[in-house]
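Chapter review: from sequence to fold.
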Amino acid sequence: MQTISSMQRNSCDKYALKNLVFWVFLIFYEILTSIYTSLPPFIGLFFAYAVILKYEKDKNYEDFTSKWYQTIIFLFFAEQLHGFELFSIAISFCVFYYFMFKFSFEGFKLRNIFLTFLVFYGYISTFLVSNLISYFNSNQVLNLTYEYLMYAVFESAVCVLLFKDRII
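The token string follows.
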């Protein structure tokens, strides 16, 4: 009996260790993206992942898991690291999910295009909300550069590869 419980504990320990290593790597990578601007910050990818997690939660009538909270923390960390205003991603997410999700989910029949739309919307809406908040606070607004387009295209390809079976 003792071996079964230790096996279960080892399985949980491996999952927790794997999860910890993944998030430490992701935070380290995010810090590198602030140094090397050619690396995409995965803001659009994690925005799409947050929408998928919220959709799965609503569809299955379940509570949020730790993945949801880790994703939100990552998005807040990334927006601060890359010069966006605080909670601009949260405002973008709420506006999209509660006002536009159902219409856009039904409008895009090809889910790969919908995932690409999520990534682009994540970048564009965060940029616009951040600039709107900066304007009201009389702060300097961000410039829209070609890098956002490069990030969104790359992250769209990654998003389609990772999540094409998650949202049906």
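Two observations follow directly from the output. The chain has two domains: 1-36, 40-163. The helical segments are 2-35, 43-60, 66-81, 88-107, 111-136, 146-163.
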